Amino acid sequence: MKKVVQLESKPLGIDVEKMFSEYDRGDVLSSNCPSREIMKHITSRWGIMVFVALRDGENRRFSYLRRRLEGVSEKMLAQTLKQLEGDGLVERTVYPVVPPHVEYKLTDLGQEACQKVLELVCWIEGNTMNIMKQKLGS
Q: Residue 88 to residues 66, 74, 105, 106, 109: CA-CA distances in angstroms?
C-alpha cells in the first residue's frame, strides 16, 4: 500500500497556482522563492546523507537508514524524510502489517537530484585531504 500525497490547490492557505505562475523556474537567491526551501531540505546535513543512503534505488527501512546515518536521532531522521517526501523526492511505502513496516526510496525526481548531490559528495570526499591541509595551514 503506497501513501499517495495529493496536492491541494491551497495547502496551508497558499494559492499554489498563483505562486508558481510568478516563476518560470526557481531562483534560490530570491527570499520568497519556494526553491530556497527545497534547497534547504536537500542540502541539509541529513538530507544529503539520506540521498547517499538511498542512492542504490532500493526500498530501505527506517532502521536501515538510522544505522547508515551515524549520529542522526530518530526525530531528525523522521523530520528529514518527511520534508523530502513532501518535496516529492522520497516515496514512503507503508505495509499493513504488525509490527508496522515502512520503507523509503527515492522517486524519479529524487534520483535525478541524487545524481547532483553525489557529484558534490564525491568532490568533497576526493578533496578532503586538500581542504584539511588548508585548514591546518600547510
A: 21, 21, 11, 9, 7
